[in-house]
Amino acid sequence: MNRRSVYLDYAAATPVDRVVLKVMHPYFSDKFYNPSASYDASKEVKKVVELSRSKVAAILGAKASEIIFTAGGTEANNLAIHGVMAEHPNAKLVISAIEHPSIIEPAKRYKKEICPVDNTGIINLKALRDLIDDQTVLVSVMYVNNEIGVIEPISDVAKVIKAVRNSRLERGVGLPIYLHSDACQAANYLDLHTSRLGVDLMTINGGKIYGPKQSGSLFIKSDVKLQPLIDGGGQERGLRNGTENVPAIIGLASALELVQAARKTSADKLAKLQAYFIDSITKNFKNATINGSLTKRVVNNVHVTFKGVDNEWLLIKLDEAGIMAAAGSACSAANVEPSTVLKAIGLSDQDAQSSVRFTLGRDTTQKDLDFVLVNLKRLVSMSPV
Question: Which pTM value belongs to this model?
Fold first, then answer.
């Protein structure tokens, strides 16, 4: 008899949608041509790449020329940080205290400020304004946090940036200032229109939206100047050199279209499941605390501290029961240090190491959550001190 399996780590990876897989399939072997070649078969592939670019641009409310395809969210984030800072080597940047490692690590190479968040994970806008000075060229604030699911007020952040920009114009300060947002965890459920959000750069990751892993894009507003990470043959406006991964590009565009078309329906379904799961946890576990804002939260995220329960032990036991969850960012799962996100919202090291992330997806059912709740009750009660 097969063991029951429940997957609650959709923030780490999503299965490729069968429709997406079908669209990608011909471009692995049948239509394998290099888009940069000069013969007709390659020109046809190039047309499909550009059509994919236009599809992504339409969803983001952008020009096709403002979309650069990358090998995932990490590369896009690195291109945003390194690209802008290499163009302005004497400037500085500001990032929020709860950014993904693919923002935190590249930011370490430059003059930087870290903007605090409150104990629900929401960025402190006054502190942000105070940290920006005439040497600041870039601000990076993620749209949805990958660990605790908090939705940041990107439009309000954009208003801060706009006020700084206007002040500089009035005073004759020539340094530009740009706003970047990592939207990898937002694309399934939230509006991505870049003008409405007020962003200058924005990252999308195909592996989080039922598209292929190692697919992604960076929106770069037309007036933003930045340097490439990789030099080469001039692909992607010379900003992402190298032969295009055609199946991944097509898969990303197809996946983004599908999730954005269904985002309201998906959000309604998952909001009910999320509310049920959070309510059940708070009623049945006296030692449990939900981390992050309960009102400004993406609909698929439930992040819990089970006080006094070692999360590594709990995750192993859940896995043995057929339940897949996580302790935090999948990109730093091997890191034994307490989460920087949880420390930023005020958790002690001990509580941070007693915290587990459950992220729901399109296949999650209430029966799945009931199965998880039964096993959590059993395991938490027998947890070693």
Answer: 0.95
The two three-digit tokens of residue 243, written as one number: 């032969």
Distances (CA, A) of 219 to 52, 178, 200, 216, 321: 14, 12, 8, 10, 41
pLDDT in the model for residue 337: 78
How many of the other CB atoms lie within 10 Å of CB of 65? 11
Which fold, 6-15+263-380?
Answer: Aspartate Aminotransferase, domain 1 (3.90.1150)
Per-position b or e across 16-26, b if 16+ CB within 10 A of its CB: bbeebbebbee
Helix axes 366-381 and 311-320, enclosed angle (nearest 10):
130
184 catalytically annotated:
no
Q: Which of 125, 267, 324, 331 is catalytic?
A: 331
What CATH number belongs to 18-261?
Answer: 3.40.640.10
Summarize pLDDT for 231-259 with one digit per residue, the tens. Answer: 998 898 989 999 999 999 999 999 999 99
Q: Are 324 and 6 in contact (CB under 8 A)?
A: yes
